[in-house]
Amino acid sequence: MRRNGIAAAGIALLLFSTTAVLADGSGDPKATSSDAGEYRDAQGNPTFNIEKDGTVDWYTGVGYLRYTANCMQCHGPDGLGSTWAPALVDSLKTLSYSQVLDTVTNGKKNVNAAQELVMPSFGTNPNVMCYIDAIYVYLRARSDGAVGRGRPQKIAPKPPGYAAQEDACMGS
């Protein structure tokens, strides 16, 4: 969980775009490094790690909970979209981590003659920003088909130092 991260709701804003983004999305999700239980891919983006027995890393598990608490209202269960907002599992196929962070942090507005799509800014909301990496990791795992619908059944233990980092971000 990094403070420089953005809200899951911001991720939704990225999905509101009606034009296709010419990016390779989240890229190869293979974890190449880990620091205190948070996995990174070869480009340094947050990613998931799933053990052979199906145990997901802590961030994927927390990401599911935080997505459900902060993003599901608009983007639907499991990131599948709704009448209000696009499916984030589809959006992450074309959006990069930095694009997702920008959208969640700053919001997005897409207006045309038929509709007005607005993603609010979550840049000052600690309930989103303190968990943006976890939310992104969960949605990345969903988008890549590595995690199914619903809460992951097996979640790795909380990494040492996680609680202190969370408290610091939340202002405790």
Low-confidence stretches: 1-24
| Main pleated-sheet profile | 3 strands, antiparallel
Supply the helix-strand structural class: mainly alpha
| Strand arrangement across the biggest beta sheet | 1-2-3
Q: What is the class in the CATH system?
A: Mainly Alpha
Helix proportion range: 25-40%
Number of strands: 5
| Structural domain count | 1
Q: First CA to last CA: what distance?
A: 15 Å
SSE succession: HEEEHHHHEEHHH
Radius of gyration, in angstroms, nearest whole number: 15 Å
Tell me the CATH topology: Cytochrome Bc1 Complex, Chain D, domain 2
CATH architecture: Orthogonal Bundle
Explain what the structure shows:
- It is built from 8 helices and 5 strands, in the order H-E-E-E-H-H-H-H-E-E-H-H-H.
- With 172 residues, it is mainly alpha-helical.
- It has one domain: Cytochrome Bc1 Complex, Chain D, domain 2 (Orthogonal Bundle), CATH 1.10.760.
- It has a 3-stranded antiparallel sheet with strand order 1-2-3. It has a two-stranded antiparallel sheet with strand order 4-5.
- The N terminus is likely disordered.
